[in-house]
Amino acid sequence: MGINILGKDNLMGIFKKYSVLILLIFFIVVASLVSSNFFSVSNFLNILQSYAAPGIIAIGMTFTILSSGTDLSVGSFAALGGMVSALLLTRNVPVPVCVLVAVGIGGLLGSLNGLIITFFNITPFIVSLATMVSIRGLAMLTTDGKVISGLIRLGNGGGSGAAFCLLGGGTFNIMGARIPIAGLTWIFFTVIAAYVLRYTMFGRGLYAIGGNREAAMLSGMRVKLYNTLAWTVSGITATYAGVVLTAWLTVAQPTLASGFELDAIAATVIGGTAMSGGKGGVIGTFAGVLILAIITNLFNLMGLPSYYQQIFKGIIIIAALLLNQFVSRENG
User: What is the total count of domains within the chain?
Assistant: First the structure.
């Protein structure tokens, strides 16, 4: 008796399992049909460069959403990371120290988010909404709302300023292609995060907490610790993304990354992570960022105004939520 691999049930199973990959391929095909310039190497490298910082932010967002929380403060954290690192750089602090201090502050404030949420049992949405405002204010306080420009010229153009800007705008020459360092960092962080979520007690704990918090607590899992660590990761990735973005732009501004929290949520949801927690992962988020990048890149190649991008981005977020709900219902 033969097996009909193209049967309705089999096709539905394939779609449910590879829905994110299918979406990615679909948008790649559409983009290549609409614009002949889409498949150029330079265009792909441009996407990798432009979406490295949002991609790094989305990694931390995935951790918080897996634990059934949503971090609305990541854009403000990115701004703070950029301002702190740039301010230290103007004081002739070595580049590694600038980065470590900025990321360390992000980790501490992210932990504070997690502690408030975990120990006082306050809704993550409310806590992160409050810190979104206060952290943005803190970023403005660092320079009284002023920008710090000309970072690449610090150290006479060949010293600390140039070294710092390599984090965001530097490239490696691989077989004649200028591969952006920021893009490679994004890929590296994604691989590390995927390993943590799949093979460590902390990662498996996040899935358990997001799936059923009460059951996780009753099983003796360290729910408060893991939940706090998830927000710590979000703070670290967001502030480092701010450093990368500042290094790429060669200017630090307290309004940096405004609205990036929406892009991070969109990429995470499109990538298959359930807003209720317990399902998804950073590989899907990586694909979700690429889908958003392809859509934005396609609109840019077509010369369409930015407000079309905003309209369509809202539509695909809703579509992704409906798709996730459908897949979850069918799996159940």
Answer: 1
Give the angle 238-324-115 at the CA atoms, nearest 5°: 35
The pair of three-digit structure tokens given for residue 213, joined into one six-digit string: 């918090």
pTM for the model: 0.92
Amino acid at 211: G
Distance, CA of 99 to CA of 102 (rounded, Å): 5
Query: How large is the angle between the packed helices 223-249 and 74-90, nearest 10 degrees?
Result: 50
- Give dist(CA 240, CA 259) in Å, integer: 17
Is 267 part of any domain? Answer: no
Amino acid identity of 77?
F
Say if 222 falls within a structural domain. yes
- Tell me how far apart the alpha carbons of residues 193 and 187 are, in angstroms, rounded to a whole number: 10
> What's 3's DSSP letter?
-
Classify residue 59: in a domain, yes or no: yes
Output the CA torsion sign for 127, 133, 134, 135. Answer: positive
Question: Tens of pLDDT along 18-76?
Answer: 778 888 888 888 888 887 778 888 888 999 999 999 999 999 999 999 999 999 999 99
How far apart are the C-alpha atoms of 210 and 165, rounded to whole Å?
38
- Separation of alpha carbons 295 and 308, rounded Å: 11
Cα separation, 103 vs 243, in Å, equals 9
Q: Judge whether 18 lies within some domain.
A: no
Q: Is the separation of the CB atoms in 243 and 85 below 8 Å?
A: yes
Residue 251 belongs to what domain range?
40-258
Q: How far apart are CA 220 and CA 195, in angstroms?
A: 23
Pairing of strands 171-174, 177-180: antiparallel
